[in-house]
Amino acid sequence: MIKIIKQLTIVFCAIFLLSGCVKYDVGVEFQDQTHGQIVQKIQLGERLTSFSHEVIDEWISSLERRVKQLRGKTKRLSKQEILVTIPFNNGKDLETKFNQFFNPAEFNNKKSQPKSDVELPQFSANLNLKQNNCFFALRNHLNLELDLRSLSLLSTSENVLISSGNLLELEFLLTTPWGATVINPISIPDGSVAPLLANVESNGKQLIWTLKPGEINQLEAIFWVPSPIGIGTVVIILITALGIYLKYTFIPKFKAGKSPIPSRV
Question: How far apart are CA 87 and CA 68, in angstroms?
């Protein structure tokens, strides 16, 4: 994703002075303990997509390959909109897929990258999710750090610097079944860490953070999700206990209340 943002922003936006030419929403949606998905919606400016189909098609092909490796799906909603969904089965699976997608090996191995007119900055994302099983539900402590300092100024091989503040719109969304509590990080004195405030929507079930290019963005929240395994176990125990109770409480009384069958002489 960083590669296309760099290429499109510098090559095209510098020419047309577009505002908000790339809108990128990243979301994590939880249904329960074993169901969830990473959702990404990328919206490109209309003038941007009509300028060069070749660059955009190349980026989409690269995106589709990475998504396919994580067993996700890529869908073109329109010429300007792309929807990516990557399912996960548990917290550990979410950590692995999220970090793998946003820290691909190609960005960590410069020798394998073809020489380009655009100098790609180092970009890192680290999602950590701690879960505590409380039988009926799981307590989740999500901590996400996005190092976007390299997006402060975008540069080309000719050392042309462009501010990305008005060119990129980045958001992170967290959707949970029972709502979430935001934990605001402590601001670092040198200003390298940006404490972000989240907007609450969907009756508290969705939190939206607007990310700041050029800074380290830290997001932290606590939320609960139902545990089908725990709930199912309790239901089975209750049914079994009820069966045992009925067996040893009512059946003996029923047998005792039967009149003896008279014997024939």
Answer: 11
Distances (CA, A) of 264 to 256, 260, 261: 22, 12, 9
Question: How far apart are alpha carbons 77 and 92 in whole angstroms?
Answer: 30
Pairing of strands 180-182, 168-175: unpaired
Pick the residue with more confidence: 40 or 111? 40
Sequence-distant (6+) residues with CB within 8 A of 207 are 173, 174, 180, 182, 198, 199, 200, 201, 221
Strand partners, 73: 85
Instruction: Supply the pTM of this predicted model.
Output: 0.74
- Identify the bridge partners of residue 147 per DSSP, sorted by sequence position: 124, 216
Contact call for residues 220 and 182 (beta carbons, < 8 A):
yes
Q: What's the gap between Cα 160 and its chain centre? A: 33
Give the number of C-alpha atoms closer than 13 A to the C-alpha of residue 139, restricted to the C-beta side: 5
d(CA 63, CA 74): 8
Range name among 48-52, 130-134, 172-176 with the lowest pLDDT average: 48-52
* Structure confidence at residue 175 (pLDDT): 96
